[in-house]
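for ur thesis appendix - nitric oxide dioxygenase. copy paste whatever u need, i formatted it the way the template wanted (i think)
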Amino acid sequence: MDHVARLLKESWTLVEEDRDRLSGHFYARLFLLDPALRPLFPVEMTGQGDRILDAIVTATQVVDDPESFDEYLRSLGRDHRKYHVDAAHYETMGVALLDALRSTAGDGWNLEYDQAWRDAYGAISAKMLAGAAADDNPPFWHAEVLTHERHGQDTAVLTVRALQHQLRWRAGQYVSVEVPRHLPRVWRTYSVANAPNDDNVLEFHVRTPPGAGWVSGALVRRTRPGDLLRVAAPMGSMVLDRDSERDVLCVAGGVGLAPIKALVEELAGWNRARWVHIFYGARHAADLYGLAGLRELVEAHPWLSVTPACSEEPDFDGERGDISDVITRYGPWTTHDCYVSGSARMVRSTLRALAEDEVPPPNIRYDTFGDL
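the 3d part is after this line
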């Protein structure tokens, strides 16, 4: 293992069990160094720590395989334009990060660890700044809500139109969304549920369990047609390989249907030779909110099939069980391009099933929607 990579992973073990303290110290130090940064963040900081920890985990990986992270970091820099950060802010955040790491790690920290993190953060921030500088789009798009349809108590499907400039995304990508009327400066990512179009219209599928989910709760329960949202630059690599001739397996759980639906819509524009199999799972039949729309696509495209499944409804007229078990019954999938989208638990179990089926890892792309 590369010496710097080893130092990063080794030093991370000193702080990973104390993430709350790490993020708390980071933000306290950041706002002390530059009080002008405080208005860029939400009034309520709960949950912000996850973002800095994600950046730390990225730092521990980027030196292992920098090429695979190059475009990710550049797109992350483009995305961070929505926060109005500049080069000076990145420098301040670097100082605060190192100070938080030293304080949290305590006596186990040493100069080698310090230099390894300094170098890693420098490489990350340089790529992010380069990505931001190369982007000629606005930091975010204002978007008007066109339609809002509820499905049960905790799920909504909504469409929005970006109001300035063409917003260009690829099917399977996601964007950050802010609800400025209710939760200013709080952003959350959502997959775009439709293929790119010239009308600048994006569709989102949003689920929020009762009593949880700030942005999702606002989008499901408090958003109405005519409201204005903000949408940031597209990110993500769960996109179609147009050069591939392999058939396609799509596995969707709950609102993980969103990017799968977008991928199928894009395929509908040009596919003639590749069979596409969608496995769509949920706990209960009522949670399969997108099934009727999928069946309409099946009627229009002979190369498409849809298999629904429920894990907690014994009388369901279809496949029963976890979706990862269902796809195993229909395999093998070794010669397919595989796309997986859903909760973290569902994605993990599906990836294990595909690995046991000996699907080559380069043929698998996935997206997760938290732990629900």
